[in-house]
Design goal:
alpha/beta; 3-stranded parallel beta sheet; globular
């Protein structure tokens, strides 16, 4: 778990309200999730298709993996969706549109 989980007391909120994000889908836009397999193997991220959906990872990089890990710590039962940011404003808007769809 990330330090942010304790700092934001998300662990206490999940316990008090019995809610871990189930039924909620969260979208992340960043550079890439190239090393997500390592995070999945360690249990820091759910498997592709079993809680994590990668819509596009064309840019490459790994900031998105770290962002997904933090969000997953805070809302472990939420569905996670990732899309790379693209290389221009139109591609970024496409990422937003694809995540909303």
């Amino acid at each position: 778990n990330s330090e942010g989980d304790a700092i934001h007391r998300a662990d206490q909120a999940r316990s008090a309200y019995g809610q871990g994000g189930g039924g909620i889908d969260l979208g992340i836009i960043s550079d890439g999730v190239d090393n997500r397999a390592s995070a999945q193997a360690s249990g820091d991220l759910p498997a592709d298709g079993a809680g994590l959906t990668v819509l596009s990872n064309a840019l490459g990089g790994d900031e998105g993996t770290a962002m997904l890990e933090i969000v997953h710590d805070l809302a472990p039962d939420a569905g996670l969706f990732f899309h790379d940011a693209g290389t221009n404003i139109i591609a970024f808007q496409t990422a937003i549109d694809n995540l909303v769809a």
